[in-house]
Structure formats: C-alpha cells, structure tokens
Write a structure and sequence with these properties.
With 292 residues, the chain is α+β, with helices and mostly antiparallel strands. The longest helix is centred in the first third of the chain and has 15 residues.
C-alpha cells in the first residue's frame, strides 16, 4: 500500500488529552480515497481465496461477482498473514504516527481483522479488547479503519467515553441476543446505555482507542450495503504479550506471544526471534464465539 504525495502532508498529531480523558481519538484522514479503494479490492481477492488459504472461505461459484462473494462473510481474522496489502496497512504513516504518540516510540502489532458486515449481519455486544488480548502494561490500542462510511444505520461503533480510566476488566457472561455475533458480553460496569455515543466515520477515517474502552456495535440495518472496516491491534513493544494458548516451545516459554509485526522503534525482545502461529480464518456469525 502506498501513500499519495498529497496525503503525506496531512496533520498526524492527536490530542493526548482527549485520548487520556475519553479513551479514543478520531483520525479524520488516516487513508486516502485511493488507499481505501485498494483495500476494498483486496477484500474481494481475500474472499475469493486468491491470496492464499483462509479457513472457512468457500470456493466461488461460476458467475459470482465480487459483491456476491464478500457478502457471505462477516469477518476474516489475521488477513495480514496472507495479504501483502493488509500487512502494509499495519504500517500506514498517519496511523503509526498516532500510535507512537499514544503508546510510545516502540510499537508492535499482533492482530488484524477485516470486517465486512453486509446488511442483516450482526454486531458485537459490549466488550473490552484487553479482555481478549491481555497485555502486561495496559498499552493495547485498536485502530478501527472505515473502508465504507460507518453510520448508525449500517453498524458503526458505539463507545462509553472514559470507561477505560478505571483500568478494570469487567466480567463477561454468555447471552442469546441475536443482534450480536459473539456469545459473551461484558457486564457489571458503572455505565448506562444512555452514556454510549456513536462514532460515525467517513471512509478513510480511523478510530484509535484504548484496550480498556468499552465498545459495541449493532447490526447493519440498511436495505442493502456494506460496512467494511479493517481493525488492527497494537501495543508497546517493550511489554511482553501473554496471549494465546500455552505452548511448549521457545516462543511461548516466557508467556510472550511472538507472532508480531514491528511498526515503529525497536523490539527489545528481538533475541527471542519471531513465531508464525496465527492462521487467517473466517469468524462464524455466532456459533464460533468471538475469540480474537
């Protein structure tokens, strides 16, 4: 993925006061229109299986259009493992600039998720990303990049501003609400539904938010339309990452997940080497849960 010269001149500063107070900031011009178009096209290539094996991808039928193919899926986990374009998006200039401001100079990525969410597809109940990806230093940061205009009608994110500040991971429980694809939800937090605010974004904008921030999304209720978004997760490279199932090999012996991508600064644990354990796959709408 390349950045057009005019796009290099955008302001990449973020308000640290806003981020610390609210737990999120918006980057209005994270990607140029051309970059968004490239990622949309790559979404179709991934859903056709043209970029390598993705667990759960079906063979396209003769005559299927790109639109037909991508509507079959809600989310692809770890697309950066098979797509050079998705991998390059981890390093996008405006996003990395924001990350070094809110995290620090040394930043690593451990996950990407490509959401498609056609009409009728579900959202996800209240949750905190740090519940699924536990870090040792609370530096987990998500970057939610809109590839279509994200609105309240097609299932944009809703957030509870300031819910990260307590530094508490709230308990979770199973639910049977058909509006959501995940069978667990956070509960027991001191906020009401009326405290939630929608974060509507134009295509190319990005929401950067703290791993402790409570957030959710609703189903796509438009008559026809997609709400595509690329969501990448980052943290400080100076912290270990005790994520994933324990494994009896050198990469997991110290409870440090090493299937990472460095996007800024230095990796103080480079002496451990890197692992290649994550595999891209389709997330089921509900039955498979929401493990990340």
């Amino acid at each position: 993925m390349t950045t057009t010269p005019s796009h290099q001149d955008i302001d990449t500063s973020v308000s640290l006061d806003d981020f610390r107070r609210d737990g999120f900031v918006v980057l209005p011009d994270a990607l140029s229109p051309d970059e968004v178009a490239v990622l949309r096209d790559e979404t179709a290539r991934l859903c056709r299986g043209e970029r390598g094996p993705v667990a759960g991808i079906e063979t396209a039928r003769p005559g299927d259009t790109d639109d037909d193919v991508i509507r079959r899926y809600l989310c692809i986990h770890h697309p950066h493992k098979v797509s050079e374009t998705m991998a390059a998006a981890l390093h996008q200039r405006a996003i990395v600039s924001a990350l070094t401001q809110v995290i620090g100079p040394d930043v690593k990525a451990m996950q990407s998720m490509l959401f498609i969410k056609a009409e009728g597809k579900p959202g996800q109940a209240w949750h905190q990303d740090e519940f699924f990806i536990p870090t040792r230093d609370r530096s987990l940061t998500a970057v939610w990049i809109a590839l279509d205009d994200a609105t309240t009608e097609n299932g944009c994110l809703w957030v509870l501003p300031g819910s990260h500040r307590a530094g508490v991971i709230y308990p979770d429980r199973e639910h049977d609400d058909p509006r959501y694809d995940c069978t667990v939800e956070s509960y027991g937090f001191p906020y009401q539904e009326s405290d939630a605010v929608p974060v509507e974004l134009p295509a190319g904008a990005a929401l950067v938010f703290n791993g402790y921030l409570l957030h959710k999304s609703f189903p796509n209720t438009v008559r026809r339309g997609l709400r595509r978004a690329l969501v990448n997760h980052y943290m400080s490279a100076t912290s270990l990452l005790p994520w994933g199932e324990p494994r009896k090999d050198e990469h997991f012996a110290k409870a440090d997940y090493r299937d990472i991508v460095m996007v800024a600064g230095n990796d103080p644990y480079a002496y451990k080497g890197l692992a290649d354990v994550a595999r891209p796959g389709v997330r089921p709408d509900r039955e498979g849960g929401c493990d990340r």
